[in-house]
Amino acid sequence: MSDTQVAFSDLDLPSSVLKSITELGYETPSPIQAACIPLLLNGQDVLGMAQTGTGKTAAFALPLLSRIDLKLNKPQVLVLAPTRELAVQVAEAFQAYARHVPGFHVLPIYGGQSYTLQLKQLRRGPHVVVGTPGRVMDHLDRGTLILDELKAMVLDEADEMLRMGFIDDVETIMAKTPAERQTALFSATMPEQIRRITKRYMRDPQEIKIASKTTTMENIDQRCWIVSGVNKLDALVRILETEDCGGIIIFARTKTATTEIAEKLEARGYAAAALNGDMNQQLRERTVQRLKDAKLDILVATDVAARGLDVERVGMVINYDIPYDTEAYVHRIGRTGRAGRDGKAILFVAPRERRLLKQIEQATRQPIKQMDLPSRDMVQDKRLESFRQQVTSIFNDEDMAAYRELIDQLAADTELETLDLASALLYMAQKDKPLILPPEPEPRPRRERDSERDSDRGEKRERINYADLDVYRLEVGRNDGVQVKNIVGAIANEADINSRHIGDIRLFDDYSTVQLPKGMPPEVLQQLKGVFICRKKIDISLMEGEVARPAPRKPRGDFKGKGRNDRGGNDRGAPRKPRPRRDA
Ligand code: AMP
Asked: Is 30 in the pocket of ligand 1 (CB under 6 A)?
């Protein structure tokens, strides 16, 4: 985190917007927010080198929202985003920040949605339009989007728009907006074509790059886990169960998250508490003291609340939510490894946050090793070991004579063998931490998987009984850059379906189909609907009346769909580049 001590209340934002921020649990502006908000409020153009995860959406949405004239029902802010997913996300962020701004209206527009619906919504006069370049162009051409009252324009993830072939559309759109409009451009990188746009269409843009300090942290063992398959809370618990490390600090982004996580850990038997800016100084100090005195083992903190925290017994820091920038990371992990001790730091990285990970590694000039989650076997072994220790120490430290007598008496009363009695007591004693865990689903042996990939042998096909499969449609296709492996991975992880039970997958330009075991529970289907592949919601649906059957075998290039048996074929070569398209 930067050492900006700026508070949201220092930033001249209207009270209605401040109220929403407080309710959302944001404690303090992220560095990009602290830098951008005053400039944008001041009407200046901004060039932000920032990517997802830095808080850039609020960095432009909060100030621009504050400049809207609610009485004027015309688009005053236009945000261009590379994908429909991002457009929706940005529109939702505006909506969330404006929940106490009565009459505010934001509209996402993107390809694939019906024009009639969009026209109707545009006629209602949204104050902010967030769109993908293709669809915005179409509406401009049709005269259905009028930008003569536009005050500000934002190019979000400009380098992505360039990569996806939208940059000409972006320029055309910019050329059609009033020359005096304010512009903010956000991009993780600054390729030449984007520089050109900034020179041509922006007025004295203020560049914002959050400088990162580098520090050596040799005594801290840094690892990261790329979030997949297991939700973050379960992953956290597995780590807590298997790592020995004294005190622990877990970092989350919002105050709300700190309390939620602390409560969930407490419910699972951990001595955990939240540490955040909602607590007064005295309570915070008391909480930290409890960690020092080992009355607490875990603090779940926000960056601000943990600033400067110095507790020797903290042996591990877990970055539950990735920090905004390298400085915050360095500060966070510096809460362990105090007084010359060794420390451990674990970072959870959602797949879409990989870029931030890379940035942290580059800035600290230290690689962060990828780790696997501890397996269920490891969790079970740890539980047994700690149980064994408890039993031994009770035996050594307590007088057990009266209990031995009680056991004799119980055995006689119940007519049970002592061993049976002991197993029943063990069963009761394990409480909510079972000592025998169900086995982990067997990963398939490598050779089997390879042969499945490499050959088309009949014996593999026999395994699939097509009568047991239904056909589902996914709203992602080749044009989104999707590959068969992405679909297998997402479905196997999200629906907990072994990839062996996934039937043929076929890719088409705009959608894909996948065969899955019959009788999928509605809640699993519902959960799958919200899964993203290649940044697009898959919105899976059952293709009623469609019968699962093996993919027809056709010569290469003739058949667009890909069957189960060429699952690896496409994957081994260079990843398919998404074709440039007019709309996301
Ligand atoms: P973005 O970089 O805009 O994609 O934001 C990443 C995430 O950080 C979103 O979930 C935001 O809600 C959250 N966020 C943004 N600003 C703050 C803040 N000042 N405090 C806490 N969370 C924030």
From this structure: yes
Tokens of 95: 């909506």
Evaluate: CB of 29 within 6 angstroms of ligand 1: yes
Residue nearest to atom 8 of ligand 1 (CA): 55
pTM reported for the whole predicted model:
0.57
Q: How far is the CA of 363 from the centre of ligand 1 (A)?
A: 21
Other CB atoms within a 10 A radius of the CB of residue 105 amount to 19
Q: Determine whether domain 8-209 maps to CATH 1.10.287.3510.
A: no
Distance of alpha carbon 297 from alpha carbon 292, whole angstroms: 9
3-class state of residue 545 by DSSP: strand
Residue with the smallest CA separation from ligand 1 atom 18 is 26
- The CATH 3.40.50.300 portion of the chain extends over 8-209, 220-375
What's the length of the chain? 584
Atom of ligand 1 nearest to the CA of 254: 21
Q: How far is the CA of 1 from the centre of ligand 1 (A)?
A: 13
In CATH, what is the architecture of 220-375? 3-Layer(aba) Sandwich (3.40)
Compute the chain's Rg from CA coordinates: 28
Strand, coil or helix: 152: strand
The crossing angle, in degrees rounded to 10, of helices 15-24 and 56-66 is 150
The amino acid that residue 143 corresponds to is: G
Positions of CATH 3.30.70.330 in the chain? 465-542
**Is any ligand 1 atom within 6 A of the Cβ of residue 302?**
no
Query: CATH assignment of 465-542?
Result: 3.30.70.330
Helix axes 56-66, 84-97, angle to 10 degrees: 50
pLDDT 10s digit of each residue in the chain, 584 long? 444 479 999 999 999 999 999 999 998 999 999 999 999 999 999 999 887 778 899 999 999 999 999 999 999 999 999 988 889 999 999 999 999 999 999 999 988 778 888 999 999 999 999 999 989 998 999 999 999 999 999 999 998 888 888 888 999 999 999 999 999 999 988 888 999 999 999 999 999 986 544 456 778 999 999 998 888 999 999 999 999 888 999 999 999 999 999 999 998 889 999 999 899 989 998 999 999 999 999 999 999 899 878 898 999 999 999 998 888 898 899 899 877 788 999 999 998 889 899 989 988 888 899 999 998 888 889 889 988 988 998 888 889 899 999 999 999 999 999 899 999 999 888 877 788 887 665 544 433 333 333 332 233 333 567 788 899 999 998 888 888 877 887 787 666 676 677 888 888 888 999 999 888 888 788 878 877 787 788 999 999 888 887 765 544 333 333 333 333 333 333 333 333 444 43
Residue 439: Cβ within 10 Å count: 9
